[in-house]
Amino acid sequence: MQEIGHWINGKMVSGTSGRFTDVMNPATGEVQARVALATVAELDHAVAEAAKAQIKWGATNPQRRARVMMAFGALINQNMEKLAEMVAREHGKTIPDARGDVQRGLEVIEVCMGAPAFLKGEMTDNAGPGIDIYSMRQALGVVAGITPFNFPAMIPLWKMGPALACGNAMILKPSERTPSTAIFLAQLLQQAGLPDGVLQVVNGDKGVVDAILDNETVQGVGFVGSTPIAQYIYGRAAANGKRAQCFGGAKNHMIIMPDADMDKAADALIGAGFGAAGERCMAISVAVPVGDKTADALIERLVPRIEKLKVGPYTAGEDVDFGPVITQASKDRINGLIASGVEQGAKLVVDGRGIKIQGYENGFFCGPSLFDNVTRDMDIYKQEIFGPVLSQVRAKSYEDALNLVIDNEYGNGTAIFTADGDTARDFASRVNVGMVGINFPIPVPLSYYTFGGWKKSAFGDLNQYGPDAFRFYTKTKTVTARWFSGIKDGASLNFKAMD
Ligand code: NAD
């Protein structure tokens, strides 16, 4: 049985706690490895070593740090297939989808190659007689990244790229369900020239997360995961004086106007609703057609498309549309929610429960499910299902549809399909959601923009990647400097305005 430890000071080390958790192969339902769960002492040691390594790294000129990012990017490209297979093996997503997971992370590293431009300060000369004011952006010191299971490459890369390019050291705590990719990325960073100790990968569960939050040396925490944990981490980090950005769960709606191209809308819903088995924080889980005619037209197009979807293990070939969900518990939860939807009066148009994949009977597979006539009070509407389940909520009007999105407690992503520019503009302007798609179902912004939800989808005031990330991972120091031509004017005791 493979045992996964921690990556400390540029080497793999075994865990000392004697506590492990199983890493499953979701396609077979078998245990494929076990990962060590670090103790508080192990975490504190990793942080202390990172703090030592950060001094030199933080003082390294930004261009040299950027060159490490350049070499890292090249190594990610060279190892793309290996990384994709590693992601697929632990997560269960298909190889083409796993390549996307790596690619969207790599794109953030590409922006980090230009980090020196983001790290420039500001300057006002002659702010007063003989006085200049300038500001500089300096690294925080040691920061932490705590990441979810569903993007084992992309989200660790979103965390480590900007943090390291800014001159910080990082403690990365990947999901205990998908730990291998983060360790391999750390090894590639070492090959790219990152000094040992600057990135430590510490595996574990709640115990190690709490140790990160309580460690006085850790200055900032970037979290991605479910909303209750995001809110908890934000609160505890803030109480301990750390800056935190914590991204949570989602319930993403797509409005379909009567003038939309129905075939394109249906194709978009299939990809955004069922891709990666619905285990994306930007998945569309609620379709909101405006008017019964639109709703019926959509169902008519969705059903045959859903029936054609191929569910299976990633090893079955690139024509597999999606794989298993992450655990048996997750599968049971999804099936339980489907049962609740039926009980609470929604119409189950396609039932994905009971799917069997030959040769993979113990895998955590859920077939695609489609509900119609879902209402606001149902559990399938209120909860993030995080599985291949698409719910259709019928809206009477555009305002009705818009208000549904506005009233929802989550605000990660949303989309509208329409042929009318005026409706699209109105939607983009009024909706209270962080990322909006117009005839585009999963509007994950490119890496030189920035990613973040609103409402209960994010806690903290800066987004991840893009310019916000460089603000999050640095603090501003402002210097007011006066150079005397001589001390002939004598000292002034007044606290006076610049004149
Ligand atoms: P999760 O919240 O269970 O776990 C995320 C991380 O928190 C893991 O590293 C885990 O070890 C740790 N953790 C879990 N329970 C904890 C506890 N009680 N105390 C402290 N730490 C704890 O999330 P997940 O199941 O791995 O990921 C799926 C969730 O992440 C979904 O809700 C999804 O929407 C969300 N997500 C959000 C974004 C975003 O950017 N908004 C992106 C991807 C995923």
Q: Can you walk me through this structure?
A:
This is methylmalonate-semialdehyde dehydrogenase (CoA acylating). Residues 15-479 form the Aldehyde dehydrogenase domain. It holds the Pfam family Aldedh. One of its GO terms (biological process) is thymine catabolic process. The protein has 16 helices and 23 strands. By secondary structure, it is an alpha/beta fold. The chain starts with a strand and ends in a 17-residue tail after the last strand. Helix 2 packs antiparallel against helix 4 and helix 4 packs parallel to helix 6 (154-165). The chain has two domains: 2-248 and 457-480, Aldehyde Dehydrogenase, Chain A, domain 1, CATH 3.40.605.10; 252-438, 3-Layer(aba) Sandwich (Aldehyde Dehydrogenase, Chain A, domain 2), CATH 3.40.309. The strands form six sheets. A seven-stranded mixed beta sheet has the order 15-16-17-14-13-19-20, with helices on both faces. A six-stranded mixed beta sheet has the order 10-9-8-11-12-22, with helices on both faces. It has a three-stranded mixed beta sheet with strand order 1-5-4, covered by helices on one side. The structure holds nicotinamide-adenine-dinucleotide.
Question: What key phrases describe this protein's structure?
Answer:
single chain, 499 residues, alpha/beta, Aldehyde Dehydrogenase, Chain A, domain 1, Aldehyde Dehydrogenase, Chain A, domain 2, 2 domains, seven-stranded mixed beta sheet, six-stranded mixed beta sheet, 23 strands, globular, binds nicotinamide-adenine-dinucleotide, oxidoreductase, methylmalonate-semialdehyde dehydrogenase (CoA acylating), methylmalonate-semialdehyde dehydrogenase (acylating, NAD) activity, MeMal-semiAld_DH
